Give the backbone structure.
Amino acid sequence: MKIILEKRAQQSKIMAYASPVLAIGLTVILGGIIFALAGYDPQTALYYYFVEPLTNFWSIEEVIVKATPLILIGAGLAICFSANIWNIGAEGQLTMGALVGSFIPVMFTDWQSPLVLLLMLVMGAMGGAAWAGLVAFLKNKFNVNEILTSLMLVYVAQYILDWFVRGPWRDPNGYNFPKSVSFEGWQLLPTYGDGRMHIGALIALIVVVLLTIMMTRSLKGFEIRAIGNSRRAGAFAGFSYKGMTWFCFLLSGALAGLAGIMEVAGPAGQLLPSISPGYGFTAIIVAFLGRLNPMGVLLAGILLAISYLGGDGAQMELGVSVKTAQVFQGMLLFLILTFDTLIRYKVKIIRSQTAEGELT
Amino acid sequence: MASARGKTGDASNEVYLLEAKNITKKFGEFTANDNVSIALKAGEIHALLGENGAGKSTLVKMMYGSLQPTSGTLFWNGEQVEINNPSMARDLGIGMVFQHFSLFESLNVVENIILAIPEEDDIAALAVKIEKVSAQYGLPLEPYAVVADLSVGERQRIEIVRCLLQEPRLLIMDEPTAVLTPQEAEQLFITLRKLTAEGVAILYISHRLEEVRKLCHDATILRRGIVVDNVDPQQETAQSLAQLMVGEAIHKIEARSAKKLGKTLLKTQNLNLKSGLQFGVDLIDINLDVRAGEVLAIAGIAGNGQSELFDALSGETRVSKKSTIQLNGVDCGTRGIRFRRKCEAAFAPEERLGHGAVPSFKLSENVILTRHDSDDDLVRYGFMDGKLMKAIAARITKKRDVRVSKTDPEAESLSGGNLQKFIVGRELDRAPKVLIVNQPTWGVDAGAAAMIRQALINCAGRNAAVLVISQDLDEIFELADRIAVISRGQLSKSFAVEDMTFEKVGLLMAGAHEKALPADNDAADNDAADVEVEDNGAPV
Amino acid sequence: MTGFEAAVLTIITASTPLLMAAIGELVVERSGVLNLGVEGMMVMGAVCGFLASYYTGSLILGILASMMAGVLMSLLFGLLTQTFVTNQMATGLALTILCLGLSGLIGEPLTGEPGLKLSAISIPYLTDIPYVGKILFGQDILVYVSIALVFAVQYMLFKSRMGLIIRAVGDSHSSAHALGYSVIKVRYYCIMFGGACAGLAGGYLSLVYTPQWIEDMTAGRGWIALALVVFATWMPRRILLGAYLFGTVWIMGLYVQGAGIAIPSQVLSALPYVVTIVALVIISRNATLTKLNTPTCLGQSFVPDR
């Protein structure tokens, strides 16, 4: 028995929309099977994962808090991947954004002005962009593979942050804990009421809208898609690949950096050695699940935020490991890649005896 | 004509070497071969003729085991056989020389050959055999040379020697002369005749009808997957064979009535360019000029610097001196393709999908690809005008008779000919002053080819300077006012078409004009006609 | 045992997992496939090797389990990229993400528990030779296996028909297909070999290097192995050089700290990653050097006509 792919004359429009839905559906089914095998009642477990987080206001708020960085980073990565440029070091860019953005509140602890917040956000974005720009520089100047450098720089960024919060930026009155001073007033993002939901959600929404307009209507978006689909044809159009490399890394780095400083100035309220539960990596899944399309990223970011929260909930209620959420995310990415094949190909299962080249 | 054959049986119940009966092959809903039957005799060269897309390659791939027929049967020496894969075909005695060679660039000649001979394990012994066979058939090869360093002609020799080492009884050749100079082709024919004298059958695919008439004993003609006729090519004319292939009278190209040449619109001065690619060709001292209202055609065998020249002229690769390339009177050697388009130059590259067009983009989006800043209205303040894009795509589609299955389809869904009509049409739609086209009708059906060629001539007629780079000599002679030839990155002087013949072009293609580097004087390459045959080492 | 000997021994243990993972990936890439899931396959090898040896008490079963885990994960990658022609880069990333989660999940109950350790061999007299005895004859068996593997791969790729076929498939899959080779089958085998090597490399971490299971204990070694393949310009013997170079950097940090030099520990911890980037810059800036041996079809999917 063999599985054979047959190219479709035209890409399937139906599959383009059905693929994420099928992938999610199958992930849920497989998840249920895993729970059953592990001795949990699948229905209850899945309920805690995917439904419970939406049943009360507090947890919806929390979903939005977690979705904000995922959407911001995912949208930037979606642009990169659309251009066939592989930034997988968003986690490091997020870290550098958090670090650079915290410069003012840590160094000028008493400065209180709306300008502080603005500067923090700008500097955070710049920190992330600079860290990503390093990758672009190495790729353009020395032809170094961006996948490996962007990833290596994640580790480097995390050690730099670690040094700062344990060394010069440690809170002098913090009983030697590795953390900075707590941010106050204009050093924190305005929140909705007294909750944790902050203005970052609005910023993420605006970014999604702007990027959607860019990708669908503007020449820049056309350039991104042209280069991503065919680098040679992009060059024929007169679009510079090096320029695109800069653009993609700076944009996605800035968005990751922004997400980083918003974590610090939002839910965390201070600089800590670890400020993200792997948002930068999960955002890769968000980008693919969202069909590399900013609007899709919005939905995918919310879905994955639910799974994060559901993972916590299921652990508290049932004692399921939090790692399960990560397994779900990996499975989801696998399945979506598989179903994406069906956009371009028909799959046929053939039972035949015809031997394939026996030379192997 | 049967003298070469070892045994001549009674024609009526003769056993054929290979017979295909009622072969049908479907790819999804597309029928590539429809009930095709063909019979090959030992010691004969049998031509398989047809347009691009007629189903020739599909048919021979089934004979070689690369593809399996949907229905129908093959008989080898009268016995029914199923050829499941190429190694089975080779065991039967079927060898194949592919149109797009099945070689490995990073491996050497022996390694390339041993990969096709599973039972051979001794590299050194095989190298000896290769030298022997190649000497025997006049196909010189250096066994330890790496393929990437070899010319197209040498690569073809590897393919042929690879087949010969397996002592085939049937040799399938797919467009073998497309990559050869006329002189090299003559040499190949000698080898082929020698093989038939030994009783080998040859199935010969070519669209060069004159050579089919000279060489082949029998011809089967395919049209849209169906066998339309079986003729003795020596009783036919090239014209009548073409008619059978196309199925309708071929559109004759109208020459321009009066030729008035204007000022020079395209000019290069000592264009030198090191290729950035690993196996690329360096351009050496290229000087050319094209005046308004004329067509300059550059002939040459594939892989001699044509795409490098195209890229340098289009601005996809830039040179260090501004005045090296002049378009429409503007020095633009250091400027990119966008600037050059603004100088009213237009370009159509060889590769249609993935260079001239983005495969998954709609035609309207592919309009933007080359016209985003030369047509002022298409993009305003960084935003595209969707309506105008579609209108222009529709205009081109209509004017150039691009056959589409729906409005504004994706580029990849078009056939080669239709997409090429669109791409050339997209550039002509701008009414450019300078038009540079690389391989305008490569892999395009005859109808579309005629249309494109006519459009190019008409473009020159509207006082544009047209540069056509092509490896198709028929096309060159049909289009050109002047002809120059490129070989190993060097361009010959240009000659008026009236003064040129196939033979002269062939000598230049083999490198008769090349300077021994470093160049000592310019007098040597004054006139191609003066060049002696002995001077060029290439044809073997 | 002198300090020098001890240092060389630790360097060798630190280098061996890099060597194993990189030599496997080299074969995969020679066949034209880019599997970015090395880190994931390694971490699965680490956890499965640890669990198997912990529960069965057998180191041999532990080693086999780590290899099996790598192979199974690589088959998942193969199924997607070869059979379903998914994007190789995205799929490799997905594999790593999935494996990091999965390994954390199944290893959670035993995190930090002490496990079995594969001990060094000892040959009477030979191991006792001063200075070189321990280094040459007193390693654990897997060190010798990993070095033998490099030479075996070198021989296989350049002296055997199998290697010729692998290189041919990586050079031009369409030509190989035209000659009747099953491109996809060859690639599946190479992917599985790479998986076994990566799994073994992971097992080495949890059975020799630090005999326990800690979450994400591969710490980017899989990615460094990928970089090593580029650094070695796809030549097996250069992998040996590169792996030991990186192992040295990795261990140097510990010794510098031990010597009481005042450098923040974070700088030393970050050093291997920085060195990887620097090494990539040095190799990649010379385009002719890298392009010479890069398999032409690297990362491209192959779908035969039917």
